Amino acid sequence: MTDNAKASSAGRGGDWARFLANWVRHPGQMGAVAPSSPSYCAMMVRHASTDVDGPILELGPGLGVVTKALIDKGVAPERITSIEYEGDFARTLKQRFPRVNVIHGDGFDLDTTLGERRNEKFAAILLAIPIVGFSQEKRQALLRGYFERLRPGGNVTQLSYLVTAPIKPLPGVFTVSSSPIVWDNIPPARVWIYTPLAGDTRPSAPVPA
After folding, report:
1. pLDDT for the residue 187
2. How many angstroms from the chain centroid is the CA of residue 110?
3. Does 205 or 208 have the greater pLDDT score?
């Protein structure tokens, strides 16, 4: 094994330990017990609408595996805004990706977190924050709020271990599709792709409490 390969392997092991430790301390804030595998993150990026012009919003980047997959695909780091709720993870992201706009904030409260950029429209939104504790009605309301932040042609992609769509489609509002299962992830998982329908012009309802 080369020195670079050894360093990369050691880094992944260290990230896994940090991720698990944080999950043990704050399980409700974490969507996973381990960092997503590189192939799983590459699958997410493959299905995200990164070909649409404009900035890209990453919600729940953790320690940056999806961020790296975006950059490896050729996305300029300056296009990426990554919002991370856990402070230590956010600090690590800023060190690893100094050209990415990393914000320590809440992906469920984007108006506050984005501040002066609250009205900005994004080419793609990549979602990896935990929503399974919410009712289906609240999940759908959150998603419609994210749709309002998309540019035409944009989509929302989500990492999930569930075998059915975490957010059920709303006829006339958005469709849902999925990637194949990525078996080398822990646990195996797939990417869910939410595509807003062009004919939906209704504003989203308030997110239920």
Report:
1. 84
2. 14
3. 208
Cα–Cα distances in angstroms (integers) from residue 205 to residues 15, 77, 141, in the given order: 38, 33, 6
Give the CA dihedral 8, 47, 127, 133, nearest 10 degrees.
Answer: -110
Alpha helices in 53-155, H assignment, sequence order: 65-73, 87-96, 110-114, 136-147
Determine what percent of the chain is predicted with pLDDT higher than 90.
68
**Would you call 148 exposed, middle or buried from its count of C-beta atoms within 10 A (0-12, 13-18, 19+)?**
exposed
Task: From 146, 117, 113, select the one nearest 131 (Cα to Cα).
Answer: 146
Residues in the chain: 209
Give me the sheet containing 80-84, strands edge to edge: 101-104, 80-84, 56-59, 122-127, 150-160, 190-196, 174-178
How many C-beta atoms lie closer than 10 Å to residue 168's C-beta?
13
* Whole-number Å distance between alpha carbons of 107 and 3: 37
With a cut of 70, say whether residue 2 has pLDDT above it.
no
Residues 156 and 143: beta-carbon distance below 8 Å: yes
What is the residue type of 188? P
Strand partners, 175: 195
- Dihedral through CA 25, CA 26, CA 30, CA 33, nearest 10? 20
3 state DSSP class of 20: helix
Residue of 199 and 67 predicted with greater confidence: 67
The mean per-residue pLDDT over the stretch 120-132 comes to: 95
